[in-house]
Specification:
single chain; alpha+beta; Alpha-Beta Plaits; seven-stranded antiparallel β-sheet
């Protein structure tokens, strides 16, 4: 049973050891560092698995129980296949389809491991057969999946709706799911689902997994979950159409009057009721904060809707905060707002339309501009460059990490409070 470990390449084994460190797995002699110390193998406090011999890596992995060994064998196969695929693409670059390239580039993104390293060692994890590799390499089928989650009394999150569409935006699955556990918060403002909607629902997560693993079928009417799945597929199709070298530009010349009368509010902490956002704007504005919230991890986004585009522009200009641009050149401001609890929160307010380049210079993408008279083809450059952009981005990233940690702690506290019968009021997802 240990043959896959013995036959694996050293680099693959090193990746498995690193994975065991991230997951906090321990064998008979403890974790990786414990193993090195107990066997006097931590030369000069060098713990990097990539700098250890294959014999040491094998010896460490053999200290784990059969359950962990089974997980290691699965991961060895997965990593080995991925490295073989990388080598194939490197040796025969013309054989990679646009769809496969998009998947590869996505997995190579620096944020991918952090946000999409799912716990595949858990008991609930399901591995689906891929079929013949030759067929997989030829396949251009794409499926976009989205789900709605609720917060349960045990502090976990559970799926209550799953939607899937194919590359033709045809509905393949639209299913309500019974979480089969006590629900603390249905987050109805976000999911659009209430306890009444799940009455009589017998479909379980296992049922949905069996459908997604094999033949997909369409049922039911569209929900917000379905719209999100379609939006993700449209983004993929746009990337395949426009290529991989440049970001997808947002063309907003045809924005409707109703869209121009909006401001996007995003990166709002999930524990902040959306009604609190009204405090950002003067009372003389007839503004409506939409309760159709879009949640992403520890934050959500929504729209502030004004009477017309002119009023929306005035409201944006009246916000006293530093202005920047998003990835598509649209002006946005990082605002701070004190809510009714006395807490100060930070989020972004963004216009719907991209700003016109100033003096023929686009500071966002640094593309060159030509003189309006066409008499000169001299390239113009933007002289305004902030030396602290990298530091600011690093601080923003750290702030997002802290927000995610706080979000997880809030769920734990909520679960403990319910377990001990402590009365508390949760403002999550209001």
């Amino acid at each position: 049973m240990e043959e896959p470990i013995l036959n694996a390449d050293r680099e693959v084994l090193a990746e498995i050891v690193r994975l065991s460190q991230k997951q906090g797995l321990k064998g008979r002699e403890g974790g990786w560092k414990d193993f090195l110390h107990s066997n006097s193998l931590s030369y000069g406090a060098v713990y990097d698995p990539m700098r250890k011999s294959k014999d040491i890596l094998v010896a460490f992995l053999q200290t784990f129980q059969e359950k962990d060994q089974k997980f290691f064998r699965k991961m060895i196969r997965r990593i080995t296949e991925y490295k073989a695929f990388e080598k194939f693409i490197s040796d025969f670059p013309g054989q990679e389809s646009p769809q496969q390239r998009l998947v590869r580039l996505t997995m190579e993104h620096p944020h991918y491991p952090r946000f999409y390293s799912f716990p595949s060692h858990d008991e609930e994890w399901m591995f689906m057969p891929l079929g013949k590799v030759s067929e997989v390499m030829k396949s251009k089928t794409m499926i976009s999946i989205d789900c709605e989650m609720v917060l349960c009394e045990d502090g976990t999150e559970a799926v209550v709706q799953v939607c899937a569409v194919d590359e033709n935006l045809e509905v393949k699955l639209d299913k309500l799911v019974n979480p089969n556990k006590a629900v603390a918060d249905y987050i109805t403002d976000i999911t659009g689902i209430s306890a009444k909607d799940l009455e009589g629902v017998t479909c379980s997560l296992a049922d949905v997994q069996s459908v997604l693993g094999f033949a997909l079928r369409a049922e039911g009417e569209p929900h917000n979950c379905l719209n999100d799945a379609k939006a993700a597929m449209k983004l993929v199709l746009a990337k395949l159409e426009h290529g991989f070298d440049d970001p997808i530009s947002v063309v907003d010349d045809n924005l409707s009057d109703s869209d121009q009368a909006k401001l996007l509010l995003h990166k709002i902490p999930v524990d902040v009721p959306y009604q609190e956002l009204l405090k950002l704007f003067p009372e003389n504005y007839n503004v409506d904060i939409k309760n159709d919230l879009k949640v992403r991890g520890p934050s959500y986004s929504t729209f502030a809707v004004f009477k017309d585009a002119r009023e929306a522009d005035e409201a944006f200009k009246g916000i006293e905060a530093s202005e920047s641009r998003d990835s598509n050149g649209r002006p946005q401001k990082n605002v701070f707002l004190e809510i009714s609890t006395g807490k100060s929160i930070s989020f972004y307010v963004r216009r719907m339309r991209a700003a016109a380049p100033a003096n023929g210079c686009d500071p966002l993408n640094k593309r060159t501009a030509q003189d309006e008279t066409n008499d000169s083809k001299r390239q113009r450059t933007c002289l305004h460059h902030c030396k602290h952009v990298e530091d600011i981005e690093k601080l923003k990233q750290e702030l997002r990490q802290r927000e995610e940690e706080i979000f997880e702690l809030q769920k734990i506290v909520s679960a403990l409070a319910r377990k001990k019968g402590i009365s508390c009021i949760s403002t999550n997802y209001l």
